[in-house]
Amino acid sequence: MTKLRLVDTAARDLDDDAIKLIAERSRHAAADALVRRYREPIFHHACWILKDYEEAVDVTQEVFIKAMREDRFFEPDFKMKAWLYRVTSNLCFNLVRDRRRRHVILETQVAPRLDEPAHQPDVVLQSERQEQILGAMDRLSEAHREILMLRYYSDLSYAEISDTLGIKLGTVMSRLSRAKEALTESLAASGVVMDDRGA
Fold this sequence. Notes:
Arc Repressor Mutant, subunit A; 72% helix; Rna Polymerase Sigma Factor, Chain: A
């Protein structure tokens, strides 16, 4: 049991180049190291977008399945981390859009019941502060919401965000600045003052 934990810890500490070196010997071993390294951050990224534990688990699994089907994934110049976050974001936003479409359809077909209990906060997002920020982020555009999550929750560098979104570094900085302003305004409209933190 102790040995397994040590292997897991070592895998989480691997960088992308180390995983690619493993792939030169065994693609299967590299896939295992990749999952151990990125499973948790990718899952949390999906949770932030979806606010649904089970959907986030499904998306995380699908991301790694897609990664293993990508022939170029372990090639030297392939940007693994950016690819993983981009695919995760795309899958999640597709689910969110589908969910909204279903909600609109149901609203037109089913009258609301006033005796239903209020929606309980998701287990992943428990604090009141998190709920306020998430509520404010929900009112932002998809582009602003995504770049804020990549930078401040997933802790990607500007260069990694540039690779993930396929935009120039200058665009990353300007979009992030506009997104922060939009979030501050959204929070202020709800009576919440956001801490002023640097990028």
